Amino acid sequence: MEFANHANQADSGADIAYTLRSKGIEVITPQPSPSIAQHEGWCFPDSEEGIYSAVTQGATHLWANTIVFSSHPLQTASCLDSYAPTLRVVGQPPGLVEKFDDKMYLNDKLRQQGSFTLPQSWVVNEGDDLNVLLQSIPNYPVVGKPVRGRGSHGVQVCHTPSELKSHIESLFRESPVVLLEEFLSGEEATITVMPPSLDRAEYWSMPPVARFNHDQGIAPYNGTVAVTANSRVVTKEEMRDQSYEEVMRQCEEVASLIKATAPIRIDVRRFRHGSKFAIFDVNMKPNMTGPGRPGREDQASLTAMAATGCGWDYPTLLQNMLHGASTLETFRQYRSPL
User: Would you say which domain of life the source belongs to (predicted)?
Assistant: First the structure.
């Protein structure tokens, strides 16, 4: 086993490696006995050299605990070619992420399908006449966010045209394209969709996790506020509200449409109190932090919380993800259906 990941996912990478090792699974790490109190030494770099090092040490599975695009060594490294038919990977194919990590592209494709509920949106390109655009937006508040983004970075609720214009201009410093969406003011939830496995032939949703204690209308990034402080699994009584089932089926359709090979997490929110839910953010690589290492007993991720609603503890979630790993060959052959 091996974990390729970026520095900002090192904590969750260490959580995953430690937890699987504690369950008797042989886990190959760069350091033979990394400190359980540190995240260093648990994960190989997600470089060609790092991945090849793990494979030559006997890794049968790679856990891609990071976002992988089409230029990633998993897709391109010729040194992995001979291993591709048997080497298994936990994660999304680079070709899938390349296409669908672009929120504007994916949301537009979902709208074209006609069967998904999404907020009204606008795309702003650098050089567009902002004053004309701002006059065309019928109602405020409006959310401005990067087309590709992590967590709540760059996401802001804007209540006036001038506030929105200022936010768009600040986002242009990072990207030439900005996504605007109508603000969904109702209850927010997040839904993890699991891919097909030997046990279940179809995509299926874990119980929704409700989000609360928003900061200026936006759920804060989990690196700032622990998800246990602002999230909980929706109760069976609450699930009698058919709008949950409706949006869960839509989320399963999204995962099936893009052919996800690992869990995806979809953020949904009601248009207003008591209304139906709309899909507003599809996350290709959910955070997989969880309890296990000493001193991290209170750690969780939205997907780990959802798993508890299925009766799965954190180790069971990870083991089920591991059992669902695809071959590297399958990863590389992925072709976008949209």
Answer: Eukaryota
The pLDDT assigned to 5 comes to 60
Ordered domains of the chain (ranges, CATH): 2-93 (3.40.50), 120-182 (3.30.1490.20), 185-311 (3.30.470.20)
Q: Say if residue 123 is exposed, middle or buried (CB neighbours under 10 Å; 0-12, 13-18, 19+).
A: middle
The residue assigned the tokens 């699974």 is 25
Q: In which order are the strands placed within the sheet that holds 156-158?
A: 121-125, 177-182, 142-146, 156-158
The reported pLDDT for the residue numbered 153 is 82
The one-letter amino acid at 74: L
Q: Which is nearest to 285 in space by CA: 117, 111, 149, 121?
A: 149
pLDDT tens-digit readout, 7-18: 547 789 999 999
The string of pLDDT tens digits covering residues 145-189 is 988 776 678 899 999 999 999 999 999 999 899 999 999 999 999
Using an 8 Å Cβ cutoff, are 192 and 265 in contact? yes
Q: Is 293 exposed, middle or buried (0-12, 13-18, 19+ CB in 10 A)?
A: buried
β-partners of residue 194 are 204
Q: Quote the crossing angle between the two packed helices 242-258 and 103-113, to the nearest 10°.
A: 110
Nearest to 152 by CA among 224, 228, 255, 247: 224
CA distances (Å), 134 to each of 146, 309, 312, 316, in order? 17, 43, 47, 49
Q: Strand, coil or helix: what is 287?
A: coil
Q: Give the C-alpha separation, 129 to 125, whole Å.
A: 9
d(CA 284, CA 192): 10
Amino acid residing at 127 = G
Range list of β-strands (E), 185-263: 188-194, 204-205, 209-211, 231-233
